[in-house]
C-alpha cells in the first residue's frame, strides 16, 4: 500500500487499543494531540501521538514511518518522546503532584508511540491573559506558589522543564493551576538520552538556553518569572536591560517585595538568580511546603474563553531545532543555529554582546578589503 506524503490526523472513531478517538485537538512539530474515550473505564484522556511532520509520514492504513533518509533522526526523537513518558512516571512517585500533568499510559501502535494523560477540564493561562486582566499579588500568588511547589517536586528528581510559559500552564475549572508539556524537559540521570533537539520559546527562554550554558533549576526560575512578568505587564521581558522603574505601575496591586522577587528571577546571568525554588520562595517570604506553597489556598475560578484549537502540550510556539553535533556536556545541538542570531531573535542580547558582534564584523570587513586589494595588486602586476 503506497505511502502518502502527509501527516494527517487519525479520524474520529479510530480505535487505539481500548481508546476511541473522539476528536483531533491540534498539534505541533513533534506530533498530534487527540481527545479519546476509554471503552472500559469510561474515562476521557488526552493522547499525544509521536508524528514529527518533517521526519515522518502516515500511510492510508494509519501506519507511521520515517521519511527516506530521516530514519536516524526519527528513531532518536522517538526515544526522546518515550523518555517524556518515563519522566512523567517518575514525577508521579511516590504519588502524583496536584500541579503537574499526570500520565496514565504509554504504548506503541501504528509504528509510533502514544502518551495518554489524564484529561483536565481547563484552559490555558495564555487564554486568560488574552483578555488583558489586571492581576494583583493575591491572584498571582494563588497560581504561582502551587506551581513552584510542583517545580520543586520535579527538580528534586533532577528534571528541568525548560519551556515554562503561559500556554503550558492550565487553569482548571476549580481555579488550581497545572504545569503541562514536559516534552522539552531534561532529565539528568545515567540512562537519559542525549538529545539532538533544542526546544524553547524565545520570549520566555533563559539566556543559557540560547547560549548553550549550564541548565538547572535557575533555568525554570527564569521561565516562571518571565511568565508572570508577562502576566503583569502584557509583554515578555525581551527589552534589556529592564527599565529600573518597571515595577512602579504595579505597586498598587503588588508589594515591592513580591515585584523584587519576580525581578530577581529575571537576572540575565544564571548565577544572579536564585539557585533553587526554596531560595526563590524565600525572596517572596514563603517557606517551602507551607500552606501557600502547597496550594492549600486555591485560586478563585476564572471565566476563560475557550481556545478554538487547544494543543494540550503539543507546542506550536516553541522553536524546535534538529540535527547538529552533540555536545558531550549538555547534549544540545551545537550546529543548529548560531548563538548570536538566536539571542538576537529572543531579545536577550545584553549590552556587551552587540559591541562584540560589531568588533568582529569590523575585523572581517578589514580582512576582506585587504584580500581584495592584494588580489587587485596581483592582477595588475601579472598584466603589466
TrEMBL record:
Record's keyword annotation contains Transport: no
Residues that, per the record, bind ATP: 48
Keyword tags: ATP-binding, Kinase, Membrane, Nucleotide-binding, Serine/threonine-protein kinase, Transferase, Transmembrane, Transmembrane helix
The Protein kinase domain, residue ranges: 19-384
Listed EC numbers: 2.7.11.1
Matching CDD domains: STKc_PknB_like
Listed Pfam families: Pkinase (PF00069)
Classification via SUPFAM superfamilies: Protein kinase-like (PK-like)
Top class in the EC scheme: transferase
Coiled-coil spans in chain: none
InterPro entries: Kinase-like_dom_sf, NEK_Ser/Thr_kinase, Prot_kinase_dom, Protein_kinase_ATP_BS, Ser/Thr_kinase_AS
Family: Belongs to the protein kinase superfamily. NEK Ser/Thr protein kinase family. NIMA subfamily.
Protein name: non-specific serine/threonine protein kinase
Organism: Thiorhodovibrio frisius
